[in-house]
Input
Amino acid sequence: MCCEDCRPLGFLLGLPFAFLSLLVSIVGVLVWIVGLLLTCICPCCLCVTLIVEAALVLIKAPIHVMEWFTSQIPC
Output
């Protein structure tokens, strides 16, 4: 009945950490918005582009955390 990739225990253990990474993701959204505004003001700044790319990594953090936790539990 259960598929091969279904690991409910890993999902449940990862929920608190996913919540924390969701908070980090919200910070990433704020940094992304500020970075985009700065990029529109001065498009020649390379460091602002790097900050925006780092913010995108923070935004994707909850997904990476849940994938990592579910992959660590064998069944």
